[in-house]
Amino acid sequence: xxxxxxxxxxxxxxxxxxxxxxxxxxxxxxxxxxxxxxxxxxxxxxxxxxxxxxxxxxxxxxxxxxxxxxxxxxxxxxxxxxxxxxxxxxxxxxxxxxxxxxxxxxxxxxxxxxxxxxxxxxxxxxxxxxxxxxxxxxxxxxxxxxxxxxxxxxxxxxxxxxxxxxxxxxxxxxxxxxxxxxxxxxxxxxxxxxxxxxxxxxxxxxxxxxxxxxxxxxxxxxxxxxxxxxxxxxxxxxxxxxxxxxxxxxxxxxxxxxxxxxxxxxxxxxxxxxxxxxxxxxxxxxxxxxxxxxxxxxxxxxxxxxxxxxxxxxxxxxxxxxxxxxxxxxxxxxxxxxxxxxxxxxxxxxxxxxxxxxxxxxxxxxxxxxxxxxxxxxxxxxxxxxxxxxxxxxxxxxxxxxxxxxxxxxxxxxxxxxxxxxxxxxxxxxxxxxxxxxxxxxxxxxxxxxxxxxxxxxxxxxxxxxxxxxxxxxxxxxxxxxxxxxxxxxxxx
Length: 493
Ligand code: NAP
Ligand code: MG
Known about the structure:
This protein has 493 residues and is of the alpha/beta class. 37% of the residues lie in helices and 21% in strands. The protein has two domains: 2-258 and 461-479, Aldehyde Dehydrogenase, Chain A, domain 1 (3-Layer(aba) Sandwich), CATH 3.40.605; 263-443, Aldehyde Dehydrogenase, Chain A, domain 2 (3-Layer(aba) Sandwich). A seven-stranded mixed sheet has the order 15-16-17-14-13-19-20, sandwiched between helices. The protein is built from 15 helices and 23 strands. The mean pLDDT is 97. The site of NADP nicotinamide-adenine-dinucleotide phosphate has 27 residues, from helix 7 and helix 8.
C-alpha cells in the first residue's frame, strides 16, 4: 500500500473519472525544484492498470452519458470558465510552474496567461466549427459533417508544462473529444492543480483524465491502447518515431510536435542592436529549453566578427538566478539529466568550434542545474552542435557568404520546425521566407507565439498543427452524409 508522504512534501494525486486517486501500485515518485535540487512534491507513478482505468473513463464519457449530448455552446462556456479560473489562480500557478520547471517567474506568468488565452480562444472556436454542403450532381443534399475523433491520448514535455497541456486539452474539449493527459515526469504539478478546476467548470467525469508517470510505463501503454483514437505528442524526435510505430498497430491518428535546430538568419542590413537582441532572445529564452530555439545563428560574413563580439558581450550580462527572483532572466535547467546532457554538448562544442561566452559552471551557485549562456562561433553546419538538438542555452554561430548560401545552410538539417530572417530589405526577406523548409518563419523577430496562428513542423519536426483553427481540426473527423431527395426506386435492376 501507499507509504506516507515525507514530512513537508506535498503529495499530489492523479485525476481519473472525476476523482483524485493514487496509482494502483500505491507508488509515488519525487518532484524536484531544479534550483535547490530539493524534493518539493511527490506524484503517483501510474502504470498500465492506471492507464487502463483512465482510458476506460474517457471511453465511457465519450460513448455515453452527458458529454456526447453537450452542445458546442456549452463546451465553449466550460472552456471560458476554465480560462477564468486560471486567471484567478494565475499567481500561484505561475509560482508552482517556476519552482517545478526552473523557469523565471516572469516567464511563468506569461505562460499561465497564455494558458488562459488558449482556453478562451477554443471556447470561442467551439461554436465556429463548420461543415460543408457538397455540390454533388444529383437530386440530393451532400454534407460534410465534423465530429469529434474520440478518446485522445496527450503526451507532453517539461519545458512549458501547463501551456503544453492547454494547447492539447482546449481544442480537444472544444471538439467534444475526451482525453487522457500524461504530463512529463519532471513537471507534473500544475496539470494536477488544474485538474481540480475541471468539475467546477462543468466538465463531466471522465472527459479529462490526468495520469503522472514515466514514458515507458505510462506513456507507451497509453499509446498502444486500442480504445484510444488519437495521439497528440510533443517531445523529442526519437520518442516521436517510437510513437508512430506503436500507433500503427491500431491505426491511430497521430500528431507530432517534435524538436528542431532552427536557423536565425542575420543579413548585414538588419538593424544591428535589434539583431543582437533577437539572437539572444531566440536562443536563450526559457534557458534555451524551447523546441523552436534559434540555436543556429547564421550571420552574413561582412558583420560576422562584430556580431559574435557583441552577442558574446551581451550574453555574459544575462542574469542567472533563482526562478522566483523577479530580476532573474535565466533559471536552472529542468533536471540533472538535462544539465548533464547540455554540459556534454558544451564539452563537445569545445572540440568542434571556438567559444565566445559560457563554457564554465556559473560560480555563484552551490546548488541547482545552472548553465551559463554559451556562444560557440566558427561552427561548421555539419558539426554535431549544429545538427543535434541540445535543448539548453547553447548557441552555434555560423557565417554565411550570401543569400543562397544562407538558405542552403538553413535548410541543411533533418528538422524543420522554425526559422527567422532579419533584414530591412522586404524582397530579400520574403525570398528567404519562401525558400525555408520550416513550419514557422519569423521576420525581424523570433519566438512570438499566438494561439490564433498555427504551430508545427516540416520534415522530422513532426506533422499536424496545433493552435488556431488548425488545432481543432486535428481533433475532428469528417463524416460524409448523402440525403437522397428522389422518392422513386433507383430503377437499376
Ligand atoms: P521526451 O523524452 O520525448 O518526452 C516527451 C514525453 O513523452 C514525456 O511525457 C515522456 O515521458 C514521454 N515519453 C517518453 N518515452 C515514451 C514512450 N516510449 N512512449 C510514450 N511516451 C513516452 O522529450 P522531453 O525530454 O520531455 O522534452 C524535450 C523535447 O521535446 C525536445 O526534443 C523538444 O524539442 C521537444 N519539444 C517540442 C515542442 C514542439 O512544439 N515541437 C515543444 C516542446 C518540446 P517522461 O516524462 O517519463 O520522459
Ligand atoms: Mg523524457
